[in-house]
Amino acid sequence: MALVGTIAVSPARAAFRELRGRLAVRLSLIVIALFAVMALGAPLLTRLSGWSPGEFDKSAVDPYLGGQPIGPLGGISAEHWLGVEPVTGRDLFARTVHGAQVSLLIALTATAIVVIAGTAAGIAAGYFGGRVDAVLSRLMDLTMSFPSLIFMIAMMSVAKDVNRILLMTAVIGLFGWPGVARIVRGQTLSLKHREYVDAARVGGSGPWRILTRDILPGVSGPVIAYTTLIIPGMIATEAALSYLGVGVRPPTPSWGQMIAESVAFYDTDPMYFIIPSSCLFLTVLAFTLLGDALRDVLDPRSGRQ
Fold first, then answer.
1. Residues of the chain with pLDDT under 70
2. What long-range pairs does 163-166 form, CB within 8 A, spacing at least 24?
3. For the purposes of burial, counting CB atoms within 10 Å of the CB of 137, is it exposed (0-12), middle (13-18) or buried (19 or more)?
4. Paired residues of 62 in beta bridges
5. 79: closest CA among 99, 58, 50, 120?
6. How much is the pTM?
7. What's the distance, CA 240 to chain centroid?
8. Model confidence over 286-297: pLDDT tens digits?
9. Are 42 and 52 in contact (CB under 8 A)?
10. CA separation (Å) from 271 to 28, 113, 258, 294?
11. Alpha carbon distances (Å) from 153 to 6, 139, 172, 218, 260
């Protein structure tokens, strides 16, 4: 228990107070909350703006200037809040908020798969040891040594008539779990011989009860910290695949896809490039800063305890 004055404070409350006192954490949470609301409320926000992500507005672009947006800053106006795409005239605000929905859905779902699979494999390998540990450890080594990016590109290229969002989530999650599993395995090896675990074993508790009641709470801190650190990587991976043209297909919007399409117009309409790039940068930065702070507070190996 930590002491504040003469009052004992629980470790969880002390950690919360330490996180709350960091300016970077507060700003990160604001940014994450903003994009989460944007993603969840994308249909409502597009109705308020009056434009759907696939709707064309030819009156917003100049056909005599190669389809450049009419007006300053890429056509930003009361009608188009973030401007329009060159040539097509599609509303950038509508495509940005729906792109947030797609990018965050893929990243968060893939992260959930990675964390659940990695935690289960790591706990099993560390607690049971022997053949179970050997098999799972070799599977971790095999997965981590595989050229994951090349495999992702190949899989996304050959898969034609499938749900692209579901396939991207599964493929990204397939190669992410060994990192979590290694961390959890190491933590489990250090916890399974603790006195309270031995006492539970002597008291007749079965493996399942020990794993869920004693081991899992002990590894939850590092897992939570690592989870917030891998979310930015998942977002960047989705954006990279979409940028390379093997991710989400048009007309479904994605930040990576928008950045790829804006490259051809970066010198004549820089706002088309800046808007999705800024969204991607701010989201990745916010999750990274939050993950660093959580790791410092929750990971017992960080030296805080």
1. 1-15, 299-305
2. 164/247, 164/248, 164/249, 164/252, 165/102, 165/105, 165/106, 165/248, 165/252
3. middle
4. 68
5. 50
6. 0.83
7. 13
8. 999 888 888 777
9. no
10. 24, 35, 12, 34
11. 59, 22, 11, 37, 16
